[in-house]
Design a protein that fits this description.
By secondary structure, this protein is of the alpha/beta class. It has 19 helices and 17 strands.
Length: about 425
Amino acid sequence: MEKELRTFRPPSAVGLGLPDGLVWPRYGGRSVGNLGPAVCEALDAPDVLLPGALAPLASGLIDDLYEGVRRVILLVMDGMGWMALHRVMGTGEDLAFHDLARNGRLVPLTTTFLSTTNSVLSTIFTAHPPAQHGLLAYELFLREWMMAVESIGFSSPWEPFANTLLKWGFDPEAFLPVPSLAQRLSSRGVVTVSVTHKSIATTPLSRMHFRGAKETRGYSYASDFWVSLRQVLSDYRRRRLFVSGYWSAVDTLAHKYGPGHITEEAEIRSISLLMKDILLNHLTAEDRKGTLLLMTADHGQIRTPAAETVVLTDHPDLRDLLWLPPVGEGRAPFFHVREGTYERALAYLKQHFGEQFVFLSRQQVLDAGLLGPGPIYNELQWRLGDIVGIATGNGAFARTAEDAKRLPGRHGSLTPEEMLVPLFAVRLDS
């Protein structure tokens, strides 16, 4: 399965110049974007999805586990990519991950493009691809607000999480043009509960994702996270239930120290230990009955040394061709060029950074299907920029030298380290 995901190329990729080794997002049934529809299928509610929604996971992956399911737990371990997980699983058979794989399934999936948290989670929790929901990257230019924002707290990138747009009347629940999974499932009597860190439980992004949810439970520490999941199963024991849990530490540590650092193994092992000792070992037979556990990641990470990072202030000629510093992601930057300078900007990018990036026009990205199937949301023509860079190695774009040094690990592009993610699927009553 992994080899097939690594080598697949659709006809739409011909002519883009993407080198071998990059991973194409598999929206047709082999990506995390198909998990939302799979949850609906498992809960016997596939008809709640609107036209344009992604398909469920491909037949034969996990659908034999759906019979009698009344509750689904979906855990998203931010940054715990396929390759990182297997590095840790190779250190010993004592991990709970081996038990999950033996008693259920462990399969590789791709994430979506861009391989970044807010976009991937938006796809999971709406069941629609980025081309339709429009939340493409961490930093976006929003023409309706005449500014670039960090699109978690929806504030200036220079002052993140300052609630800037909220103060100006921004309505998070009206931002995404597609409904949430919770809204659709509630129409069939399925209760949705999210368990996420209290620091982000009420951010605009969380409010977008969990429109229609019965409740959002904020936790403070690792023990609190796993106890909260256990408590939700108990509290809604007699209800059809979809509970999601989000854990960010693998990603946070990889950003700080770089993927492959000793803290990565320590954190993934701690997930295994606490999941088993606090959650799984304490579930009653009644809590296990009809319960399907899914665990995945939104993306992996790759090392991005400062020496391989492009610093915009070192390239004043490029800066003068843009009316906005690059946004999107450092590994997949969006370039908004000044009128009449497109060809000059593209030539500069290819000449100076063509060995580190492939540069595509906005239309090439959309036509190739990298953002998934349409109909394409109208705002993408402003949010995506005129030119999109796709890192092919360890490079990234940064606005300043300080930014270049700040993150030794990043994600957003199409390398296997970033794109391949695991999916565990196991019936807890088996």
